[in-house]
Amino acid sequence: MPPAATPAFHPVLRMLHWSMAALIVSMLFIGVGMVSTAGPAYSWLLSLHRPLGVAILALALVRLPVRVWSSTPALPANLPRWQARAARGSHLLLYAGMIVMPLIGWAMVSAAGKPVKLAEGIVLPAIAPHDLTLYAMLREAHGILAYALFALILAHLAAALMHGLVRRDGVLRSMLTGNA
Amino acid sequence: MTHRRARSALPPWAAYGLIAAIVLVLLALFAFAGGWIGPSRVSGAAVSDALEYNAGRHAGYRRAHAKGLCISGTFEANGNGTALSRASIFKPGRYPVEGRFSIAGGNPLASDGRNVFHSMALILRTPDGQQWRTGMDHAEIFPVADVAAFVGLQRASRPDPATGKPDPDAMQAFLASHPEVRSFQQYMKAHPLPDAFTDGPYYSINAFRFTNAQGVTRFVRWAMLPEDPLVALDKRTLGGLPRDAVFDRTLKRLANGPARWHLIVTIADPGDITDKATVAWPAGRRTVDVGTLIIDKALPAASGGCRDEVFDPTILPPGIAPSDDPLLTARSAAYSNSFTRRASESARSILSVSAKEF
């Protein structure tokens, strides 16, 4: 039986949501920033990109079971069906993105045959074979999905603000303060 | 409840406007971060573009140093390097090495007499998983100090299809604004050109930081100095050399047995310039012979494993770190972009396996 609906998200989920929001948005900016320059910022941004990506993956793997097993607030009953569907679909895609993106990045560096270096002396094992064609596909996917994820986050943000500012139906508050 | 009523003061048009404004600001910031708006910057892709402009686009090949030869062998560390760096590669022992000899430029079918700039790239691995990647040139200094000048040089030195030589006016204008290129030209004029890859010296180009087990950090450069005596090419008859003369001589030499180099680390004196590859250090610096490189195999680049490697000079083991030379970051970004381009080209099977290639 699914858990009963509650007025707000679990505090752990709210904390994870906002910290990961900051991390993921930073990550997307770092990503487009680093490929835009061969200047000194490149190495610095690259050295941030890998550990942040792994941190996001780790947090997402903690978050997913909490999201699945905690009771979450129901969407307002008067929400149009297409909006309710879009909400569920986009949340699914956001979860997929925060897990798949770091894995593609990790696999892509592995397929390039480069060490997956997180910090001085910390190198993760390869999770994909050293293969030029595989690298090409993963690199392309990493870029395309990054833009798609940014678009999805903007849509998610706009929808949340619509709930909070236009509909004022408590959906935004359920992730903000938790007070119904 | 008062709080809720205060917020409901926002009329719908203002709420929609605010939401649109927030989304647009985020989009603008994203575009700024990605370099689509705001001041222009030189990306790794811009370096690839400049190299393609200079030498043409050769699908599947490196954008620079397109013509190469895969090599493999062993590095024998004598232990002297442990005083300078805690990297495992300096502990006495024998470690596997793979690498690549190449000539500069983006043309995989370049003539060895026309393109006389030689390089050795290596990946040195130790059993604990550390690796040291290095791309070395046979000149101690680099023509330009930063990535913008490198792009400018590629654009100015594009060979005219009719004459095979760069436009003298464009080159003159570039040299006038980049006097540092002169020292490189003088260096090339003063130094002999090896007739093979096996009898040439190779230099780290940039400075690096070595940190030893005691935590002492020193600026260093390194060189691979050959045991084979250098046989110089006659600079007056370079144009008449067979296309693959240097490559063929190298293959013949390696067929007769391994070639050896000594890895010599040079330690900077206080005050030496460590962030400009255009400037050589004065003579008389302390040097340490840290081991011997033995190259015993060579394979054409298409069939050898080196095709799939990036010789990014910033992939370093603990105990070796980049200096503040901006060229190192630029090399890392540019090699990465070149790697992505040729990987996607070969993924699209543009690279014909049967093409004659070194």
Question: Any overview of this molecule?
Answer:
The complex is a heterodimer of chains A (180) and B (358). With 180 residues, chain A is mainly α. Chain A contains five helices and two strands, in the order αααββαα. Chain A has helices spanning 11-35, 41-69, 81-111, 132-167, 173-176, and strands at residues 116-119, 122-124. Chain A has a two-stranded antiparallel ribbon with strand order 1-2. Chain B has a domain at 62-139 and 191-347: Catalase HpII,  Chain A, domain 1 (Beta Barrel). Chain B has helices at 2-7, 12-33, 44-55, 147-156, 168-177, 180-190, 245-255, 326-347, and strands at 67-77, 93-103, 118-125, 131-137, 202-203, 208-211, 217-226, 259-267, 287-300, 320-322. In chain B, strands 1, 2, 3, 4, 5, 6, 7, 8, 9 and 10 form a ten-stranded antiparallel β-sheet that branches. Residues 1-7 and 350-358 of chain B have low confidence and may be disordered. Chains A and B meet through α1, α2 and α4 of A and α2, α3 and α8 of B.
